Amino acid sequence: MIRSKISKTHIKLFVLSSLVLTVIFLFLGFLMLSSIERYAFQEKTRSSVSTAKAYSYSVSKNIAARDALIALLDEKIEIAGETLLIHGGLAGEDLTDLAKDLKVDTIDLYNPEGEVIASTLPGNIGWKVYEEHPVYSFYKSGDRSFVEEIRTNTISGLDYKYGYFRLQDGGFFQVGVSAETINEFISSFALMEAFGEIKKSNALTCLCFIDESHEVVASTDPENVSKVVTDPQVLELLSKDVETGKLFDVNGQEVYQTYVPIFHEGERYGTLMVGEDFTSTRRLIDRVSYAGTVVMVSLYAGIIFLLLSTQRKNKELLEAAYFDEASELPNQRLLREILEERKRDGEPKKQAVVLIQSLEYKNLHHEYGNEHLKDLVKVMVKRITEECRFNVQVFSYTEDRFLVLVEGYESKNELVALTKEITKVMELPVRTTKGIDILKVKFGITEIRPDSAKRSLDRILKEASVALSTISKADKVNYAFFSELSGRKLQMEEVVEQELRSVIADDYMTSFYLVFQPLVSMEDGSIVAFEALSRFVSKKYGEIPPVKFIEIAEKKDLILPIGKIILTKACRYAKKLKDKGYGHIRVSVNISGLQILSEEFLNDTLKTMEKEQVDGSSLMFEISENSLVDHVDTLNEKLQVLREKGIVISLDNFGVGSSSLHHLKGLRVDMLKIDKLFIGPLAKGDPSTLITKDIINMAKGMGLQVVAEGVEEEGQLDYLAKHSCDLVQGYLLSAPLEEEEANLLLIASPYTLWPKVMEKNRIYHGGSGHEGYDVNFDL
């Protein structure tokens, strides 16, 4: 019974599968027939265009011959003119004899007033130059000579090519050569002869040349010559500057007509039309389609199920072995086999591996999640493979990185061109269910040289990663090639990374510490806040600049835990200040965009404040301008929570990022810090300082307090006092200080900072308490 049920189940499955596959097969058969016709049509198009291009060469030779003859006419006219200039005065000379001697068709002598006083054509005598006539330009120019293009004579109506030559008395003469002979040669005889030769050696339905006025100048069918094309479909094809074609029904016969524009030295002279009989091609399509249908239906219908099943199984196995499930891209195993195959074959062509990283991955991942990123990566890969003109293969690597194998390039310049091309297509807006994103990428490149063919794929990928890691935000380019120097740089970064991880494991380590630079009130010279600045001393390399170790932390995904440590240390110092009676002085902490966009930021921040026994009235957060522009709504929600806790929010580095006044109005911030780029010129009287004054006025108009950082000279302090800047920060007042030195500064500030600032206040505002200042942290 069980066996019978299983048998029936198998039969039903087989019947059902057979029916489904039969439908699929019929559909595939339809696609096959359509593909045969489409392929044949495409091949006909390619062959017709190729044929037409070949014939266009004969037409181009005639155009070149015309240009050569025109050049000879120019030379002939110039020689005749120079001969007459050497001859001297022409008045009283027999111009007809001179024209015969010089083998030109006409000579006209003009007096200084522009009137013809002698001519080989009596009818021209007495004619005078007028403003709109072509001769007028030379008459007024003062040039010694000029040869113009072929034009129609105003009096005779015949085509001539004229040259003009100025005499010493201010008059001039013109030498003309008839252009009728060359025009007749080019317009009819030469092309007709060329078409005749082509007609003898090729079985074409029609071949003709159509000029820019849509007149048939030459044709293998003499009856078509001199006819003007009026068919709208043909006129549309003639209007295009690229090769194109279309199938026409000509007297019941299918003819494929190809239209090739003819250019010579950048100028379009007309269009060559080549017509070919489509009957044989149509007959071939019918025969192949019929044969294919008969063979497929009669021979393969019985075994299609097994073939499809086997194919499906094989495909699944192959995809599991060689493709990444998440991205659907070929994996590193396939890349390794391709490289090994190239080694075995001994192919000499050059190879390189390019590691591409999405710069926006982390922010987008935090905001939209993993599935959204998968969709974006698929779009990126599709653009690279479909829109780049280079022959490349794309492979999976990590979630935010993928590999591109480039083969057969000539030089590094081509690899650089590849990165620019990929950058171009990547930065096109991508529309998803979450909105519109613009993807920015950077590239690490390593070449697989013949002399280093023994390198493993792991080594190659390591080199590409090293090259990628050397690119910083300050670099003007978004690509880097691997070198030994970058290898040493990687070694240094790996050491720093391990030491930073040790700091993360134990935030009491003294190698990572904070220094504090005061923010001083311009109203009374008091210290209202300290900005906490991180410092790191490596055991192996000594003190590492903040820009460098922050960059390494970002590359190694350590910026979030490092940011938490900085906040923790800042809270500890704020607690000490409060315990010493300086609870009104805040500690300012720089918060990166990646930190504030993380889902855990608010929760972690509030937990740290609770653990270190610090409330919001003791803290200030400085947020980089660039981190706000693309995430205003999300950030405003978090900023509002922080402000409700009493934390002051300052917009850092204002003026050098990409935010606008529109974005600034929408941000929930309390303070604006002007970047030192705008403070530096203040002491020099630079006209650009007007911008700084406008920023101060704008911020105050919006109810924001204004901080100027990077104040290092008296002149800068003068300017800021004059324009009522609220707070100042910089080496003129104090360098960043370690904790004990900062405490001493609090004691000494009435004797150091206060007099210096108050003197400026007295000079520009007549004493303390000026209404232009607004240092108030009450939220």
Automatic annotation (TrEMBL):
Key words, A-Z: Membrane, Transmembrane, Transmembrane helix
Keyword field contains Transmembrane: yes
GGDEF domain mapped to chain residues: 349-484
Pfam families reported for this sequence: EAL (PF00563), GGDEF (PF00990)
Domain of life from the UniProt record: Bacteria
Annotated transmembrane regions: 12-33
GO MF terms held by the record: cyclic-guanylate-specific phosphodiesterase activity
Protein's UniProt keywords contain Transmembrane: yes
UniProt domain EAL: residue ranges: 493-750
UniProt cross-references to InterPro entries, sorted A to Z: Cyclic-di-GMP_PDE-like (IPR050706), EAL_dom (IPR001633), EAL_sf (IPR035919), GGDEF_dom (IPR000160), Nucleotide_cyclase (IPR029787), Rev_trsase/Diguanyl_cyclase (IPR043128), Sensor-like_sf (IPR029151)
Protein name per its UniProtKB record: EAL domain, c-di-GMP-specific phosphodiesterase class I (Or its enzymatically inactive variant)
Organism: Proteiniclasticum ruminis
